[in-house]
Amino acid sequence: MAATKAEPPAEAEQGLVDEWREILAVHARTLCELDRELHPHGLGASDFEVLDVLAAGHSAGGGGGFRVQDIACQVHLSQSALSRLVGRLEKDGLVERGMCSEDRRGVLVCLTAKGRALHAEVKPVQRAVLTRMLAAPGA
Q1: What is the spatial distance between Cα 7 and Cα 84, in angstroms, rounded to a whole number?
Q2: CA-CA distance, 48 to 31, in Å (whole number)?
Q3: Which residues pair with 109 in a beta bridge?
Q4: Kind of pairing between the strands at 95-99 and 66-67
Q5: pTM of this prediction?
Q6: What number is the average pLDDT over the span 58-85?
Q7: Does residue 79 contact residue 107 with C-beta atoms inside 8 Å?
Q8: Rounded to an integer, what distance in angstroms lies between the CA atom of residue 126 and that of residue 56?
């Protein structure tokens, strides 16, 4: 069977592909900018996202922490990548890990006082980057 030349994508389909690629480009530029701005504080974009999830959960639920798999769903990291990241945050004294009382196999992650303080210090920096980078398409 002879190979056939691929038909050019329809205009609507190409528009969809172009829109997807622009989303990826904005995401990549924003992550790079977040990493650059957060680096002086000893954090990367993913580090801050974990602290932010924990801080939001702490203030809403009054403590208790999050299970690792629940954090993974919110920060879009694999469980193994998140476990390594949490290990680094724990080594830096920003989070603590403990056993889940409902399921002894589960691990809970909680912010420490140091983690809450760093999150509060860095949150305006992160929010300013998001505002700047996401304010206008193609920014």
Answers
A1: 45
A2: 11
A3: 66, 97
A4: unpaired
A5: 0.80
A6: 79
A7: no
A8: 15
